[in-house]
Amino acid sequence: MSLLLPGPRGWELWKKTPEGGYVRASADDGPMLAGEMPGLPAGNVAMLFPVRALQALPFRAASTDDALFDDMAVMHAERLGIRPDPMAGQLSDTFVVDRQAEDSVLLHVVLQNPGPSEMPPRTPQEFDISPRAYPVSGNEVCLWKELGRWVFAVHQGGKLIYCQATHSDDEEPGKDVLREIQLAVSQLMLQGLPVKPAKARVWSPAAELGGAGALEGMFAEGVVVEARPDPTLPSPPSRLLPADVRAARREKRKRQQILAAVAVVILLVLALVGTMLFGIIQDVRERNALAKKAAAVAGISEGFSDHQSRWLELGPVVEANRSPMEIMRLIQTCIPPNSGLRLKTADINLAEEMIRLDGIAQTSAPVNAFSLALKRNPALADWLQWDNTAPTKTKDGWEFKFSASPIEEEPTE
Fold first, then answer.
1. SS3 category, 333
2. How far apart are CA 384 and CA 377, in angstroms?
3. Is residue 16 assigned to a domain?
4. Exposure string over 357-380, b if 16+ CB within 10 A, otherwise e
5. 236 preceded by cis ω (within 30°)?
6. pLDDT tens digit string along 333-358?
7. Can you name the residues that pair with 46 across neighbouring β-strands?
8. Residue 375 phi, psi dihedral angles, 5° rounding
9. Are 135 and 198 within one domain?
């Protein structure tokens, strides 16, 4: 995770080292707008918003339940007349400064909605604020320059409790900067917040060669002038997420889902084509094998077909269940008893391979039962295919016409 943060004279890029720290990877004079930052690395990038792009709203909450902190922070901001645009993404977050037995000290941060030029050319993966990138211990006020102006942050017990950007661009912090620090600390104390800065740290762009300016002698433990420490990735991470970044991530997820769906369709098509090709190959092999067998028995099959045809002609003589009298007896057993159904004609002509039955009944129920019995009679269903039409109502009753023909037997090899 590389860091993109505001430096004294422009935006800076810091890359992570194998040892775990960060090293400067951009020129001293970067662009004043993050949208003009060149050479972003290919990996993940965390953008740290400058102090001038946010409002810090510390307050004391009468609760220790983390689930209530966000709602209480929103109400506190609304009492001060601050409400972020709900359509601009997640522009606020709440951090715990101190937690006691019955209440907690919280820092609510509200971002301004960043414009297109204030966002880098490539969408960062994480967002945070620059004061959280510098580790501090104790009760201290830290001053450094961001994008040409002095900013300061108040820490209590090593935790960030307040930060503010000034209008001063002098080489050293002057009286106007000291006045803004004193006013901010006084306001925090009036809110009942535990703010007692005993030391000041000036992270001068000139490092140890810089001066404390108007801050000299104003703190009990003195003022330390030193180089700005190397940044670190804030922990725990914030939930800040501007709207355009959220939309870009949503569009990226949508593209990934479309690509995944296309890949699945392609795999299915390839699998289907492979299956069909395998089936075609199997069919070709089977056809070739059958062709060889057919060629081997071509003469035999013709003699067998002639023999089978002659045997079928003798069926009514040599097969008892196919004689007209036996067929008529089987048909008679299918008539529902005491139903009033009677046959007017019964044409059993096996030479023409056709059976026709004409009959009548007083109601349609016996006709349907008779039709079903003919189709289910095992002695008839084994070799006859019945085609029974629905009965027709006439003035004499329900007339029906049933017909059947022998089932064609497939020749055996």
1. helix
2. 10
3. no
4. bebbbeeeebbbbbbeebeebeeb
5. yes
6. 999 999 899 999 999 887 677 889 99
7. 3, 126
8. -75, -25
9. yes
